[in-house]
Amino acid sequence: MKKYIAELFGTFVLVFIGCGTVVFSGPAVGNIGIAFAFGLAVMAMAYAIGPVSGAHVNPAVTLGVYSAGRMSGKDTLGYIIFQFIGATLAAAVLIIMVTGRASGFDILIDGLGQNGWGAGYADEYNVWSALLFEFIATFIFVKVILHTTAADLKIAGVVIGLTLVVLHILGLPITGVSVNPARSFGPAVFVGGIALKQLWLFLVVPAVAGIVAGLGCRFCPCCKSCKK
Questions:
Q1: Half-sphere exposure of residue 124, counting CA atoms within 13 Å on the CB side?
Q2: What is the pLDDT of residues 18-46, one digit of tens each?
Q3: pTM for this one?
Q4: Whole-angstrom Cα distance, residue 7 to residue 159?
Q5: Under a CB-based contact definition with an 8 Å cutoff, are residues 17 and 37 in contact?
Q6: What is the pLDDT of residue 50?
Q7: What is the pLDDT, as a whole number, of residue 222?
Q8: Which candidate, 157, 141, 139, 140, places its Cα nearest to that of 54?
Q9: Which is it for the CA torsion 18, 19, 25, 27, positive or negative?
Q10: Is the CB of residue 187 less than 8 Å from the CB of residue 195?
Q11: Is the distance from CB of 178 to CB of 170 less than 8 angstroms?
């Protein structure tokens, strides 16, 4: 249970800091600031809860670790459930905070850092651009995690966090960057509307990419280090 609670806390922190930066400070810090908010949040959790749970804080990562043969099915399910709970709690807390703004808050207009694509979202890329980016970005992210943790690098948390930063710098204009089904789920369930209708992509594509990355590490002769 300690591992599951750690994953809940870690995912809460990721969504609270990352999406919170979008909601409260987005115009002030811009895309670079948002990118570092997500990346530094993951970096902090890697060292804070890494010794307890491995600091997945992301169902796509958990599925990648499972398909690489490095965790049990029971823990995989437990991690994913508590990651979704953590993300949802963080989104709920953000709503409570932002509704205290004197100028008011309209969740349909202002949003909650939700992911999306198409008309009215970021640079209005289409669904195929969104799908391709989310698959490739998640694959890269999970592969980096599998290799750096298997190699037992003491700077693994730094490498993982900075990887997430550069993926956000690239992908914020496309989808807002998910690479994490729980991170997308939390805000979307409260925003509703188009965010909820488009949620399928951010649940399915990162999950599939994580599994593919894990299977690659499990069966590819070039990735034997990931079998540790």
A1: 2
A2: 999 999 999 999 999 999 999 999 999 99
A3: 0.94
A4: 20
A5: yes
A6: 94
A7: 60
A8: 157
A9: positive
A10: yes
A11: no
Q: Find the range with the poorest average confidence among 73-87, 100-114, 158-172, 186-200.
A: 100-114
Give the DSSP H or E segment for 224. none
Q: Which domains does the chain possess?
A: 2-227 (1.20.1080.10)
Q: Give the pair of three-digit tokens for residue 52.
A: 């307890």
| Residues 6 or more apart in contact with residue 141 via CB below 8 angstroms | 60, 61, 160, 163, 164, 167, 179
Measured distance CA(179)–CA(206) in Å, rounded = 5
Neighbours of 130 (CB within 10 A): 25
Q: What sign has the CA pseudo-torsion 20, 23, 26, 27? A: negative
| Low-confidence winner among 2-16, 167-181, 212-226 (lowest mean pLDDT) | 212-226
User: Tokens standing for 35?
Assistant: 């990118």
Q: Give the largest CA-CA distance in the chain.
A: 59
Does position 87 have pLDDT exceeding 60, yes or no?
A: yes
Burial state string for 6-35 with b = 16 or more CB within 10 A and e = fewer than 16: bbbbbbbbbbbbbbbbbbeebeeeebeebb
* Tokens encoding 150: 């298997």
